[in-house]
Model the fold of this input.
Amino acid sequence: MSEVRVLQLARRDCILFKVDGPAAQRLRGGPGATAAFLNGLRTVCYVGATLEVTSEPGGLDVWLGERRVGTTPWSAVIARGMVTVAVAGDGWRDSIATRVPVDRLVRVHFRAPADTVPWPVEPPRERLVAALEQSVQWTPSAPEPAAPDSFTAKRPKGGRIVGAVVGAVAGGFLGYAIDPHSDSVAADVALGGVAFGAVGWWVGKKLDDAAYDRRVRAYQRRDSAYAGAYAAWREQMDAERAALVDRLADGAAAAQHVRADSLRSIIRAENERIRARNRAAPRPTVTVERQPVEREP
Done:
């Protein structure tokens, strides 16, 4: 396609990009474009311009018409003509309509209103009580009841041993006393000793079991008495600690209320100053500059 035809198509459809130094170098090196052709492309029908949008603070959403295009600071090449530029963030939005001339750098700057200082928040009493429950240092007014010694007694065996010995001696004596001149006196003594020894062992066992049961019951009574005393002590100490926490929470709540009251007047005055500055803040500013000329290498 001839250079004349390319220029005719460019004039008919227009172009939105500039023939800068790198583009001219590619055209000159590849297709072998002449200097007259490159100069014609630069001037025939370029309708582009650069739009730059900034804000204080940065990071606000940038809108061109109904389309979100990015966040500040933002810049791009756009077509010439009228455009509505808007920025938005945190429930605030501002916009301005401006003309974008061809081959110009249009700078649009927005200033977002400053946020007011929030009112002091008094913590609820429940939060104060919870915090004090975790941090309060408290010493019980009464010592904790002493627990009884653990029960480690074993079943006694002394009664059954003594009973067996006494029974055996008594049985043997009785066997001998029945017929001391009998030929079987030794057998009678042995039989009587075994029989009465068994009876004595059984009687001694019952006595040992009864003594052990008495000690068990005595320990159970002591343990039950300790459990009742500990429960009463725990209830009294919990009540004392709760009363202390309540007093501290009342004091903390009163101190927070006084602090909030003292800050409200300061915050109210500061917020009035912020609102006055916001009302006096300038509208979005628009500056139009000639785009810097890019020199060919």
Q: What stands out?
A: DSSP finds six helices and eight strands in the chain. The longest strand covers residues 48-56. The helical segments are 3-13, 21-29, 35-43, 125-135, 158-178, 185-280.
